[in-house]
Amino acid sequence: MTFPGRRLVGSSKDGAECTAQETYMSSILTNNSAMVALSTLRNINTSLAQTQNEISTGLRVSSAADNAAVWSIAQTMRSDADGFGAISESLALGNSTVAVARQAAESITDLLSDIKSQVIAAQESGNDKTKIQTEISALREQVTSIVNAAQFQGINLLKGSEAISVLSSLDRNGNGDVSASRITVNRNDLSQTQQTAGTTAVTAGDLMTGTRTGSSFAGDATTPTALVAFTDGGVEEGATYTITLNGTGTGSATGGTQSFTYVATGNDTELTVSSQLKSQIDTYIADNSLSNLSTSQNATTGELTISLGGGSGANDLTVDFEEHVGGVLAGGLAALADMDVTTASGAQTALTDIEALIDTAIDAAASFGSVQGRIETQANFVSGLTDWLNSGVGALVDANMEAASARLQSLQVQQQLGVQSLSIANQAPQTILSLFR
Predict the structure, then answer these.
(1) Distance in angstroms (rounded) separating the CA atoms of residues 299 and 276
(2) The domain containing residue 49 runs over which residues?
(3) Could you please report the per-residue DSSP string of 224-238?
(4) Residue 221, CB half-sphere, CA atoms under 13 Å: how many?
(5) Does residue 418 come out as left (phi exceeding 0), alpha (psi in the -120 to 50 range) or beta?
(6) Is 263 within 8 Å of 327 (Cβ atoms)?
(7) How many domains does the chain have?
(8) Please, are residues 168 and 87 in contact by the beta-carbon 8 Å criterion?
(9) What is the pLDDT of residues 295-344, one digit of tens each?
């Protein structure tokens, strides 16, 4: 027995329209209509669950299963955003540290200006220099108090010489490798500490090598030289280098001794140490018009050459040098510690010194101000970059709530229709019962 089906329209070989009755078998074991309706309803329910998940989480991609590529990119960007959040904190701490130092340097500049007024007053012979000195001493103690108090989280940029660094950025290259960028903040020592050479001896050659003790030469037709080299890696804070010249080549008929000492900072290099010692020797040569004595330097290694010109007859020179550690660097305001205006000569010296001290304090304040401005600029950039990263992550994974809402309404209607269609399809086999009545 057959049941009416759909009417099919086609064409015969001679082009005439023809019709046929499509027939199909009804079965109580296989319900094709129900299977189609069930498959459709299953797909609708899956889409509906996904849409409801988007609405409840606010995310279009909430796990790697949703979209592995987009999820991995978003996770990397989230990690960078979290990292820049930590960098913002580092910059905030660095900014506060530098701001304290800058404010202290500015206050010290003002105090030094007050001291300058007192020093100028001391130039007048009729003024009571003892009382002026008392006022200077009080102001000097105030400077010391400010220097000691100018610290933030234990970091004092007005004492010592070693620079600090502030984490400023994380740089990612095309290969995904990450490196850290930092802003270097140099200390500006405004203490009144007097320089003290180190006394702890080290093994000969640890800091300096070359021509050593007892290297004596007399002027003749040639140009005798002594070489002083500085050991690679031998520079450290407090390392003390002393070169001693002895003999008539120093400008003394009786063979006087002249020593030149430099205490290194933690930021110095071999070339820096060499340049500082060469500068001291050259200044001595110039001040004493010693045309027969000269120095030269290797601009790469810092090796220092001390030469005694030939043809000088009885001139002779012994070059000696010593190496020690444990030295104390001179503070930037060391000249303030022993400033004494109670005498006319002392008042004159103080007038010269105070100008240099004010310049030192101004340079320190300007240096801190420049670095603080750079830190603030970087902090603003990092803050904006973090916002851009978060916005980029949102564009990748956030759900479009307007579209999700419209899709939810549509899917709910489709779900109702799918349930109705499945119900109708499930009722079809029941019509077979009428055939057996």
Answers:
(1) 13
(2) 7-58+399-436
(3) -EEEEEE-TT---TT
(4) 0
(5) alpha
(6) yes
(7) 3
(8) yes
(9) 999 998 888 888 877 544 456 777 888 889 998 888 889 999 989 999 98
- Check: CB of residue 166 under 8 Å from CB of residue 89: no
Q: Which amino acid does the sequence have at 214?
A: G
Cα 218 to chain center, whole Å?
54
CATH of the domain at 266: 3.30.70
Q: What six digits make up the tokens of 303?
A: 């090796």
- Biggest CA–CA distance in the chain, Å, is 148
Are 332 and 314 within 8 A, CB to CB? Answer: no
181: nearest Cα among 267, 282, 106, 90: 90
Tokens of 210: 């070359």
Query: What is the average per-residue pLDDT within 336-364?
Result: 92
Confidence band (pLDDT; 50, 70, 90) for 423?
confident
Question: In this structure, what DSSP letter does residue 219 have?
Answer: -
Kindly state whether residues 417 and 388 are assigned to the same domain: no
**Does the pLDDT of residue 25 top 70, yes or no?**
no
Phi, psi of 429 (to 5 degrees): -60, -20
Map tokens 């990450």 to a residue.
Answer: 178
pTM (2 decimals)?
0.67
